[in-house]
Amino acid sequence: MKRICVFAGSNPGVHTAFSQSAEQLGYELLARKMDLVYGGSKLGLMGRVANTVLNGGGHVIGVMPTGLFRGEIVHTSLSELHEVSSMHERKAKMNELADGFIALPGGYGTFEEIFEVVSWGQIGIHDKPIGLLNVKGYYTPVMELVQHATEAGFIPPTETPLLICESDPAVLLDRMRDYRPPAKVNKWSELPEEK
């Protein structure tokens, strides 16, 4: 893995641990000589991880739709900035640029981004590792939801490992480095298995 796409809140959240974890992740990316790909904002957790990597001399690539420049306030010190026309194009470009994905705490946008790349992984658009940085148990309810959906028959048990969840950035990146995508299975329980 040479480039990690980080999805993160454009707000810092209420706990200092959120910002500290964003910075810790930035330090880990620097230590491993990994580039950061992210949404291009200077605000919130997005800005914290980007500034950490930039201040350490790392390479940071932002991807932002033109219409969001005003709201998210584009970071003006990035190594590269890709201007795109829509959120769909933003996510496609981030997927193209990255070798793996990590979600820091965030809101609806972060949830939507991480679940889209999980869905893409499930249907075979990519086979890249996907991690959740579980700061202060932030993603524990998400993992419980995934387990609930598996037990309810909506996620094949072989595909629950598509999401890697850890509270320590170094451990998360180590697990992502060692990730092997699950064997492709028939995800439709009403269709017969191919022979």
UniProtKB/TrEMBL annotation:
Quote the NCBIfam families the UniProt record gives.
Rossman fold protein, TIGR00730 family
**Domain of life, per the record?**
Bacteria
Q: Report the enzyme's class at the first EC level.
A: hydrolase
UniProt entry keywords in alphabetical sequence: Cytokinin biosynthesis, Hydrolase
Biological processes per GO annotation: cytokinin biosynthetic process
Its cellular-component GO annotations read:
cytosol
Q: What is its EC number?
A: 3.2.2.n1
PANTHER family to which the protein is assigned, alphabetical: LOG FAMILY PROTEIN YJL055W
> Which GO MF term does the entry hold, naming one?
hydrolase activity, hydrolyzing N-glycosyl compounds
Q: Which InterPro entries match?
A: LOG (IPR005269), LOG_fam (IPR031100)
**What is the protein's given name?**
Cytokinin riboside 5'-monophosphate phosphoribohydrolase
Into which family does the record put it?
Belongs to the LOG family.
